[in-house]
Amino acid sequence: MLYNSTRNKNLKLPASLAILKGLSDDGGLFVPQEIPVFDRTLDELKELDYRELAYEIMKLYFDDFTEEELKGCIASAYDEKFDTPEIAPMVYAGKVYYLELFHGKTIAFKDMALSILPHLLTVSAKKNDVKEEIVILTATSGDTGKAALAGFADVPGTRIMVFYPKDGVSPIQKLQMVTQTGANTSVVGVNGNFDDCQSGVKAIFNDNAFKEEIRQKGFCFSSANSINIGRLVPQIVYYVYAYCRLLKDGRINTNDRINICVPTGNFGNILAAYYAKRMGLPVNKLICASNDNKVLFDFLKDGVYDKNRPFILTCSPSMDILISSNLERLIYHLAGDDDEKCALLMKDLSEKGRYEIDDEMKQKLSGFLEGYATQEETLAEIKRLYDETGYVIDTHTAVASRVYNSLKDTLTGEETIIASTASPYKFASSVMKALSNDSAGKDDMTLIDELSSISNTEIPQAVIEIKNAPVRHTTVIEKEDMKKTVTGFLS
Ligand SMILES: *Cc1c(COP(=O)(O)O)cnc(C)c1O
What we know:
Blueprint: E1 2-5, E2 8-14, H1 15-21, E3 30-32, H2 42-45, H3 50-61, H4 67-77, E4 90-93, E5 96-100, H5 110-114, H6 117-127, E6 133-139, H7 143-152, E7 158-165, H8 171-178, E8 185-191, H9 194-205, H10 208-216, E9 219-223, H11 229-248, E10 258-263, H12 268-279, E11 283-290, H13 295-302, E12 304-306, H14 327-334, H15 339-352, E13 354-356, H16 359-363, E14 368-372, H17 375-389, H18 395-407, E15 416-420, H19 428-435, H20 444-455, H21 461-467, E16 476-478, H22 482-489
Parallel strand pairs: 5-15, 6-7, 6-9, 7-8, 8-16, 10-11, 10-15, 11-14
Antiparallel strand pairs: 1-2, 1-3, 4-5, 12-13
């Protein structure tokens, strides 16, 4: 299995090199030359536990890893760091399944991939005789940063620097990051929004002279952002796992089609569901749920991607994104794996901030449904679900839940799974604003205690840990100074 760039099909790399590079030199993303299909039936796969299933999926993509290497990565990733042996449990509430992807170390779904990426990367480095120290540069809208820091902290042969929008993350997210331990970690606030951070990191990755300068000093860059194929593939696993659970529990029958509804930002999570479908998972509709930054909603509706619009800070900050990087992979596939067509559209995006796909490509969007929820609707959805069932969801999951409920009468398919992407504790102030009339003015830790008592759930370890942890990272920079900051970190 080789990977090529979405902008250049002649560039072909094995999985380990694609993982190491993160982003192709031409600015494209790595995609498998052919999306593999399951080599075992779902009735066989349903008997496997999470790790065994992870191996069955990942071996189809990472075929230059030995069985021992890949199983080693999987075993190191999906262990007691997760607070349940199921890794990704499902909760049935309000006649729909919430697939809880937040049982890892940082209580958001990014842990599902970022707990394995450091292992995939270090094995890839060894396989390819990389002598340089790997430097992970990451832009975060809140959750990636902490999950990457947790994954890479004190991993030998690596350093990690995370850029976050100074005022664009929740207080808990920020506290989680600035208290990060590990001698190889650095966390930097940027005066700008997430897209500024992401564009800055991309510019560094595309700066060949700078990369050479860094190499002379014994370093090479890699990315932990969701564009890395080493993040996308591990995310396919839980959709297959969820389907298999429904099958095993007799909630659906063999070949029944399900719907999957995903609160979407950078288009990584839902793209993994798309890959699962292409691999043979019986999926009816993939529902892309957006918040007020509904650039994806508009794209899926009209075929026009246009980022020229105001950036809105919402109560679902991990979805506050106007440039959804992973969409490029879908564009490439919609174009019939046409690298030139994809490159032209991406050129339009970088020059005009806008592109439009042709009718043929538009037709291929029929497997998707789109919807969006305003902040008011999102908070109302948290309250509705709690009042009806006692189950509390976070502000991101609530976007998807609301969108699903607004579309459900139009849906066929047997059951629907909603990707639940964060613990409500991570966004406690917004969640409590939705649930209680007197949350205003209370600090986050008080609200966390109140959330625990009304939801009858235990405060997660990740929150307890940051309560008294000292702040270790205080740097804040202008967005023009990212490169300089990287140089400083490496000297
Ligand atoms: C990252 C994130 C999302 C968006 O996922 P994408 O893969 O970027 O579309 C949604 N919810 C939460 C809590 C997240 O951390």
